[in-house]
């Protein structure tokens, strides 16, 4: 096996394992959602419409930098925004997309998640924005995702779900789960009667302090 083939097999296995873990974490359902990893000049990404439990390494599709998939392979319908994230952020090496219940609930309400907890800093700033709606799989959605992620590692997608991007598959999956937890807390505050405008939140200066701490000490609290 050539080094590139070995790397591809390893990344493909990590993608499948992360897909299965999304199901165990309860942040995705059925064949919704998709995961990719930067590879060579393009990316490896889950195929369209295959149940995660049936995936093998050979099913993971390579898409090159022009958006052309391997002959005879059908990548996830959301390949456009995955590829666009890699092209706009050279420090991102994995992208996780799902329809997690609480994150999607907020996305339906077109609500960004505010700084209700210091862990919001893990996504890169004082909030997790919500990208406006566009039909799934379109170039229009890809542009909206890239705009929402300009200063963030994660965002919600209106009437759709969420996206998290990070330096590795493990970290992207971890971040996606943190976004869902933040969304759950925020949903519970709204259910308790808080209004979006009056929900208690941390000031931007404190989020900057936490972000700097994450950068120097890592994410352990
Ligand atoms: Zn989706």
From TrEMBL:
Residues 13-187 form the Class II aldolase/adducin N-terminal domain. GO terms for biological process: pentose catabolic process. InterPro entries: Aldolase_class_II_sugar_metab, Aldolase_II/adducin_N, Aldolase_II/adducin_N_sf. One of its GO terms (molecular function) is metal ion binding. SUPFAM superfamilies: AraD/HMP-PK domain-like. Signal peptide: none annotated. One of its GO terms (cellular component) is cytosol. Pfam families: Aldolase_II (PF00596). The keyword Metal-binding applies. Keywords: Lyase, Metal-binding. This is L-fuculose-phosphate aldolase. The lineage of its organism: Bacteria, Pseudomonadati, Pseudomonadota, Gammaproteobacteria, Enterobacterales.
């Amino acid at each position: 096996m050539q080094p590139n083939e070995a790397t591809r097999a390893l990344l493909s296995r990590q993608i499948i394992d992360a897909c299965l873990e999304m199901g165990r974490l309860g942040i995705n359902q059925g064949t919704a959602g998709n995961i990719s990893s930067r590879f060579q000049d393009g990316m490896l990404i889950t195929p369209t419409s295959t149940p995660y439990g049936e995936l093998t390494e050979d099913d993971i599709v390579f898409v090159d930098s022009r958006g052309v998939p391997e002959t005879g392979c059908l990548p996830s319908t959301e390949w456009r925004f995955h590829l666009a994230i890699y092209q706009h952020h050279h420090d991102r090496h994995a992208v996780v997309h799902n329809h997690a219940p609480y994150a999607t609930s907020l996305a339906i309400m077109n609500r960004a998640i505010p700084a209700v907890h210091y862990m919001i800093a893990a996504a890169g700033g004082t909030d997790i924005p919500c990208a406006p709606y566009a039909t799934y799989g379109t170039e229009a959605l890809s542009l909206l995702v890239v705009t929402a992620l300009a200063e963030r590692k994660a965002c919600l997608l209106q009437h759709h779900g969420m996206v998290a991007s990070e330096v590795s598959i493990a970290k992207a999956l971890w971040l996606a789960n943190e976004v869902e937890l933040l969304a759950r807390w925020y949903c519970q505050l709204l259910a308790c009667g808080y209004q979006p405008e009056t929900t208690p939140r941390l000031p931007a200066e404190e989020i900057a302090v936490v972000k700097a701490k994450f950068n120097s000490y890592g994410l352990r609290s």
